[in-house]
Amino acid sequence: MSTTEKNIVLHVDDVHKTFGGLHALADIDLQIEEGKTHAIIGPNGAGKSTLLNVVVGRLSPTRGAVVFNGEVLTGKAPHQINQLGIARVFQTPEIFPDLSVLQNVMAPAFAKRDGSFKLNFLSSLERQTDIRDEAEHILHDVGLYERRNTHAGALSRGDKRRMELAMCLIQHPRLLLLDEPTAGMSRHDTNTTIALLQKIKERGMTKIIIEHDMHVVFSLADRISVLAGGRIIAEGEPEEVRSNPKVQEAYLGGAHL
């Protein structure tokens, strides 16, 4: 099947990234099909977060290119890439701790609509009933509606991650990148997050998930790529990857699978 027929929304094309003499990424060729959930797994230090940072423009590849929806992202600033339709939930939540939960979720919607973030957006908060209503609806979806008026800095780490997911969802991204979205969550909150991400999948949003929790990976992924030593060592559907000897070796005999 050709790339066009598969409708590839993101292509990481022969990407390499070196830091001094260290090859953090090498020969990365990754194709993400629209509407699918693609998990990237691998041991610590495999290069997973480096790969996401290259995609969102926080790092420039030493060689190769990242193409999103036919447009080369390489060389663009992170905010430009975000404007094109890519949002990311970070491994460490990036929030406005002194603003309320509701204000945090509304802020990216203003930035998306206006093309830039305006510090005076709070002054017009009450007049923006459409954005407020959507933010409250999304907070209900992620289980934070009752805490909408709480200062974001007072949330637990797990709740901050759920709030940051809401901050991404209100942007209606074409591609959502999730860097360990359930880290720091209880099993109950993890399962709630899985259910939410499954609901998002039904709406057709494309997702890339980096995750250590194999329960999350196998609950959500349509396709899995395995990184080890900065290279993709295996790729395929979940059961195909689970039974791959290279993957079992990378995970110390398959203990985590």
Which helices and strands, and how do they pair?
Blueprint: H1 3-6, E1 8-19, E2 22-33, E3 37-41, H2 48-55, E4 63-68, E5 71-72, H3 78-83, E6 86-89, H4 101-114, H5 129-141, H6 157-169, E7 175-179, H7 187-202, E8 206-210, H8 214-220, E9 223-228, E10 231-236, H9 238-242, H10 245-250
Parallel strand pairs: 3-8, 3-9, 6-7, 7-8
Antiparallel strand pairs: 1-2, 1-4, 4-5, 9-10
Descriptive report:
The protein has 257 residues and is of the alpha/beta class. The chain has a domain at 1-82 and 211-251: Rossmann fold, CATH 3.40.50.300. Helix content is 36%, strand content 25%. It has helices spanning 3-6, 48-55, 78-83, 101-114, 129-141, 157-169, 187-202, 214-220, 238-242, 245-250; strands spanning 8-19, 22-33, 37-41, 63-68, 71-72, 86-89, 175-179, 206-210, 223-228, 231-236. A hairpin with a 2-residue loop joins strand 1 and strand 2. The longest helix is centred in the C-terminal third of the chain and has 16 residues, at 187-202. It is globular.
